[in-house]
Amino acid sequence: MTQFTSPYNFVPLAEWVYCPEWAELVSHDVPFADAFSGELRYTLVADSPLLVGGRQEPASATRPGEVHAFRMPDGRPAVPGASLQGMLRAVTEILTFSRMRQVDDLRFALRDLSGTRVKDLYSQPMKRVEAGFLKRQQDGRIVIEPCEYAYVAHADLHGLGIKASDFSKRGASVRDKETAAARTLERTLELRFTPPVGGAGNLPESALRRATEVGSGKTVGRLVVTTQISQWDQNNGKGKKFDFVFYARRAGSVVPVESEAWRDFLWIHDGEEKDRPWPGYWKEKFFKGEEVPVFYLPPADGVPLRFGLARMFRLAGRYSVCDAIADASEDHIHDDAADFSDLLFGRLGGDLRDGGSCIASSLKGRLSFPPALASDPEPKVLELGPTVLSSPKPSFFPAYLEQAHKDAIPERESYRTWDGDKGGMPVRIRGWKRYLLRPDLAVPPPPEKSKPTVQVKLFPLETGARFDGRIVFHNLRAVELGAVLWAMTLGGTEGARHSLGMGKPFGLGQVHFEINEAASRIVPNRPGAAPESIPSFLKGFLAHMEQVCPGREGWRNSQQVASLLGMATIGRDVGMLRYPSLENSEFQNIKNSGLVLPRPPLAKGAVSLQSEEDEVAGCKVLHNSGRQELEFLVDGKRAFWRGPEAKAWVDALDAPLRSRLKKEKLTARVRVERTGNEIRVVSAEAEMPRV
Fold first, then answer.
1. Residue 235: exposure state from Cβ atoms within 10 A (0-12, 13-18, ≥19)
2. Which residues pair with 286 in a beta bridge?
3. Helix, strand or coil for residue 458?
4. Residue 568: which of 488, 465, 503 has the closest Cα?
5. SS3 for 558?
6. What angle do CA 653, 656, 660 make, to 5 degrees?
7. What is the CA radius of gyration of the chain?
8. Among 134, 256, 357, 449, which residue has the least CB neighbours within 10 Å?
9. 3-class SS at 405?
10. CA-to-CA distance for 649 and 223, rounded, in angstroms?
11. What number of H helices and E strands is found in the chain?
């Protein structure tokens, strides 16, 4: 039976963002009367081998690469301040219900024909694909010049003299195939043929759109080839046996390639292997001014143009990362005020969708992190591996996106992918990715067929390595200093550890802080003020967060804090803490079985996050037509419907109810699902006004 094994999980994204009331008063120049400055002295202890990457040796055809621990110029091992800052900021963002903003607003691609739960999500939109030539105009604008396309059979091309051994062999690249065709068709790859007459029926598209009289017809087109993914066998007809011919250009109706669509295309293709069509062939030609044949889906329903280099190209998702974050709360995206984490670590202001770089609302952090130096200048170094470092990409939607079902997707339903689901529901990101702690060290050997060029040896410092460091802070209020201390100590939770550096899935990088209160300096801004102890700062932060956190469970038992601490302690079956195997097709089996990444473990004593459903009447409904968004106010909390779901609900209202919605006077009886502090509207029925 297929199981969803994973060394990582996610802290759920909160549906609100906490922006402290004193945010606008934070300054480096004007001190708070009740604030503190100074430094926290600590020792960072490695509870498992630790590798914060420093010197690296590249892999070659004969030996794996190497990664060694970071060292100072004098050779002393150390942990860079930036690594410590990043680790603590990630924890602080969760603890303080801050924005998820350390992300790139990308659209991950989908090309998946596996199983009933995914196949239609990809194949249905791809039925509307059109063809054209990607080019840069004289004014610098990038456009697609549309044209018609037809399938051309390899058997017909071989009849013209194009060698099957060069053209139809497994693995033949676009460069290989164009070179082979050019020996017969000349450099322009012009091809005479008769276009298909079209028609309907149950025949595949390759039959309905097949070119005939190849080499002798009256229509002239350009042969367009794609990578030969499988060997064509003319004896049994198996393998990839069609390419394309583009013809009948429509020069007067070019399709503009806006910056967003161009960025999506480059994101999907620039990172491919060098022998792939874009980096290995078409990219150079395009930037030399030549045309590139592409397939595309025109922009529609708010979704930008999407295009690629094959008939079944990798389809950029309908929803971007920011869209998936905003489904939890638009407050994560908009930047009206600094959140708690911003006040401590600093920020570049501006809305995330706009790149988040507004200098006027930027803020310098009030914490600084010098490197932490090894107590022993020559700690023992281990040699681990070789192994292969890998991680599923965020395009792996069974793990990275919230699904409608918690354990498995029923066979007749669909996954929620970056292109949505069958019901048109928006997608939501799972949350902050965290690695689960394992009690052992398990560095897997490289896959049997892997080459040294993708392998690496790791040279971590041994368990027990200690690093002495300090955090310098300036003008922090007591609750802010308490947040820093809580993040460092994880609230004093027994056995809780941070994860730092490389090899986290293997058990590397488990660390904890020991704070040296006697050596620390915590100086009140107000002269003569009584000093406070570290426990008092921790207690003050806890009390503050319990006060500002909405919901029945409060802050300590919220999904976010309980999940964070649950994943920071050891206690899982180590057999489940591994990546699915590529060699055994486990990623594919997960999708074929409809499996969903299990919920994260909770801290001991935290309340269970079982969902409860109930009905609430008299909930106010607000409509933002520009965003296609419905907002339901339920027991003082906000829940949202967006996209097609919101539009369909509004369209179904009669004229009087729609008028009340426009005037912000409409209420609804809603069925809500409550999970911890979060709510989700399952269904809603508009209420008629009482006469």
1. exposed
2. none
3. strand
4. 488
5. coil
6. 90
7. 29
8. 449
9. coil
10. 48
11. 18, 30
- The b/e string for 65-103 (b: 16+ C-beta within 10 A; e otherwise) is bbbbbbeeeeeebbbbbebbbebbbbbbbbbbbbbbbeb
Average pLDDT over residues 378-384: 95
For residue 59, give Cα distances in angstroms to 62, 224, 455: 8, 36, 7
With residue 561 as reference, give the H or E element that holds it: helix 559-567
Residue among 432, 505, 477, 539 at smallest CA distance from 86: 432
Q: What is the pLDDT of residue 349?
A: 66
Tokens coding 229 = 């993914």
SS3 state at 492: helix
With contact defined as beta carbons under 8 Å apart, do 467 and 41 qualify?
no
Distance CA 136, CA 558 (A): 52
pTM of the model: 0.84
* DSSP code at position 171: T
Torsion of CA 195, 200, 202, 207, to 10 degrees: 0
The neighbour count for residue 404, using CB atoms within 10 Å, is 14
**Given the structure tokens 């007749």, which residue do they identify?**
412
Nearest to 144 by CA among 133, 155, 159: 133
Two tokens at 255? 């399709």
The answer to whether the CB of 154 falls within 8 A of the CB of 226 is no
Other beta carbons less than 10 A from residue 524's beta carbon: 17
| DSSP-derived secondary structure for 204-251 | -HHHHTB-BSTTTSSEEEEEE-----S---TTT--S--EEEEEE---T
Q: Do 635 and 616 meet the contact criterion of CB atoms below 8 Å apart?
A: yes
Separation between Cα atoms, residue 475 and residue 216, nearest integer Å: 82
**Token pair recorded at residue 138:** 């004289």
CA pair distance 281, 50, nearest whole angstrom: 42
In terms of residues, how long is the chain?
A: 691
DSSP state for residue 289 in the 8-state scheme: T
Mean pLDDT score, 270-292: 90
Gap between the Cα atoms of 469 and 67, Å rounded: 24
- Tell me if residue 34 falls in helix, strand or coil: coil
End-to-end CA distance of the chain: 59
Query: Which residues are registered as beta bridge partners of 219?
Result: 193
Q: Distance between CA atoms of 5 and 580, rounded to whole angstroms?
A: 6
Residue 610 has pLDDT above 90, yes or no: no
